[in-house]
Known about the structure:
Layout: H1 15-30, E1 44-49, H2 55-66, E2 70-75, H3 87-95, E3 100-104, H4 108-118, E4 122-124, H5 132-146, E5 153-157, H6 163-175, E6 178-182, E7 196-199, H7 202-206, E8 211-214, H8 226-232, H9 240-245, E9 251-254, H10 266-294
Parallel strand pairs: 1-2, 1-3, 3-4, 5-6, 5-8, 6-7, 8-9
Amino acid sequence: MKPLRHFLSMNDIEEEEARMIFKKALEWKKNRGKEFPTALQYQTWALIFKKPSTRTRLSFEVAIRELGGEALFLSSQDLQLARGEPIEDTAQVLGRMVHGLIIRTYEQKEVELFAAYGNIPVINALTDEEHPCQVLSDIFSFEEKRGSIKGKKVAFIGDGCCNVAKSWALAAEKFGFYLWIGSPRGYFSPVKSDFVQNTSSVEEAAQDAALLYTDVWISMGKEQEADKRQMEFSQYRIDRRALSVASKDALVFHCLPAYRDKEIALEVFNERKEEIYTQAENRLHVQKALLAWIVGKLNG
């Protein structure tokens, strides 16, 4: 019996495996509506979400259905978890009824516990520590338009401690690109790597970058810090200033939702919205291939 695969972190996948996923994602994107894969046929996958979601929930539910499976959305408030049932108990019961779990929650430890006790594949759909599905898809989106990301410079403008930035930092060495975090001091990336650099200068981070990337200043769960963060991050945005020093053909990505004239200038968002919306769409295609890889049916 093959060992279970989980995707809880960017550390859970090798570049070669990711590139197999990218190849299949591109194929399924081109043939959507013409090709009907059955990797999850007769399977039911549960989605447990403690945090609100648009793109993550939508892309995973559609992906499961397009692979022949059934998606079962479970709000954490509707489960006994909300009344204090241990994750270990919930995980073992779900593991006897469904074929896989996709979890969006606060603590990384929670997805790890589900993976340890559920005896079924578990996917991290976002925690406070990481958002690996987002970054896996983002790398695919970059390479779809610009070729290999290896050796390129990626500039993340904003909170270098946020989950998306952390997943980017873990991906840098794996894929061989250079990540520059442009953020206020105190929000530098905690990931130590020769492929990750921190700076408090937006211009230094963006200089010659092939990709400018940003996320909201106030992540879910940080709402009590809103006033403080609005002030500290007020100059850390993708705008004309950042674009003027980036590579001439630099892409602009935002994992959404976007707050115009905060982390990204309104005019820049409007000019680059096609890139950003394609980036969002690709969550579906990459996660379809990720699900097929997780169950060992990437060719199914």
